[in-house]
Amino acid sequence: MKTMASITKIIVVILFFASQVVAQPDPDGKLRIIAFGAHPDDAELKAGGVASMWAAQGHHVKFVSMTNGDIGHFEQAGAPLALRRKAEVADCARIFGIETEVLDIHDGELMPTLENRKKVADLIRDWQADIVLCHRPYDYHADHRYTGVLVQDAAVIVVAPFFSVNSKATQKNPIFLFYSDGFERPYPFHPDIVVDIGDASQQKWDCITAMPSQFADEHSWQASYRADVPKEPAARKAYILELVKQNNEAVANKYRDKLIELYGQDRGSKVKYAEAFEVCQYGTQPSLEKLKELFPGFQ
Questions:
Q1: pLDDT, tens digit, for every residue of 143-172?
Q2: Which of 210, 204, 144 minimizes the C-alpha distance to 179?
Q3: In whole angstroms, what is the distance from residue 293 CA to residue 90 CA?
Q4: For the segment 110-150, what is each residue's pLDDT rounded down to a tens digit?
Q5: Is 196 helix (H, G, I), strand (E, B) or coil?
C-alpha cells in the first residue's frame, strides 16, 4: 500500500510539473485564431472574409466544424456526404490560406456534454488561441446553439492546467467573439467590431463556389430549402452566390453607423461587404482600440 501511495505521489508531481510547461507565444509574433462552426460551411460563411485577411497578414487561422454535416443535403446523406463536405471545406481552407478540421459528430446530434466540452477546450489549447470565434447560443439550429454553449463553457477552463491531460493550458484566457445573426431573443446581436471584407470578398465567393453541396447542387440545402431558386444549373449557382453576397451587404448596411465609427465617415459609408462580431463576456475583455489592433484592415 505504501509503495502504491508513493507511486501515486510521484505521478501527481510529474503531472504537475508537466502541466506548467505552457506553450509560448508563436515565435513569429503572429496571432492565432480558431473559429468554430456547427457545420462545414458555417465558419466559412460567417468569418471567411476576415480569416482570409488575417491569413494574408501571416496570422494563423483554423476553422473547426463541430459536426460532419452528413444530413445537410436533400438527396445525399451519411458518410458519402460527410466526406464530400469535408473535402469542400478543405478547398475553402486552401483558398483562404488557413487550416481546417471537421469533427466526426453526426449533423443534428451535437450535445453540450462534458466530453464535447473537453474536445473544444483541447482544440483551443492545442491551437494556443488568442482569439476564438463561434455562434451565439440563441440560434434556430440546435447544433449552432450548442456550439456556442460548448465554446463558452471552454472559456476560463482553457487556462486551467489540470482540466485536460491531453493539451497544455493557454497562457491567458483568449478573446471570445460571436458571429453576427438576426435573432432578437433573449437579446439581439450587438456588434463590437465590424470588418470591411471588400479586399477578401473574392476569396469568400470562391469558397462558396467550392461548396456545391450547400450552394449549387439541385438538391443542395439552399436550392431545396428555398422556392425561388432557378432550376437551370448555371442560373441556380449564380443566384445562390448572389444571395450570399447580399447577406454580406446586409451586414454592412445594418451596421453602417458602426462602420463609420470604426473607419471614419468617408470609408465607412462606402463599405459594401462586411462581417461583424460581438465580444463574449466570458473571455478576455478587449478595448475597442485593442480590437482594431487585432482585427485586419484597421492598421
A1: 999 999 999 999 999 999 999 999 999 999
A2: 144
A3: 29
A4: 999 999 999 999 999 999 999 999 999 999 999 999 999 99
A5: strand
Residue 295 Cα distances to 14, 70, 72, 178, 234, angstroms: 39, 33, 31, 14, 36
Name the one residue in this structure whose C-alpha cell is 508537466.
Answer: 18
What CATH fold (topology level) applies to the domain 29-196+274-294? Rossmann fold (3.40.50)
Return the beta strands (E) in the chain as ranges. Answer: 32-37, 60-65, 99-102, 131-134, 175-179, 193-196, 274-279
Q: What distance in Å separates the CA atoms of residue 115 and residue 104, rounded to the nearest whole number?
A: 13
CA dist., res. 215 & res. 110, Å (int): 23
Q: Is 262 exposed, middle or buried (0-12, 13-18, 19+ CB in 10 A)?
A: buried
For strands 193-196 and 274-279, give the pairing.
antiparallel
